[in-house]
Write a structure and sequence with these properties.
By secondary structure, the chain is mostly helical. Helix content is 24%, strand content 0%.
């Protein structure tokens, strides 16, 4: 069990914090398509 946190690539402070908490970077990439409303 666990959870995932999504972080922007440029947000180095958050990434460093998650690393210090023992979290590991994964192999996932995120894709999205925005739809017009």
């Amino acid at each position: 069990r666990g959870f995932r946190l999504y972080v922007e690539k440029e947000n180095r402070i958050a990434q460093q914090t998650y690393n210090r908490l023992g979290m590991a970077e994964t192999h996932y990439l995120m894709f999205e398509e925005l739809l017009e409303t």
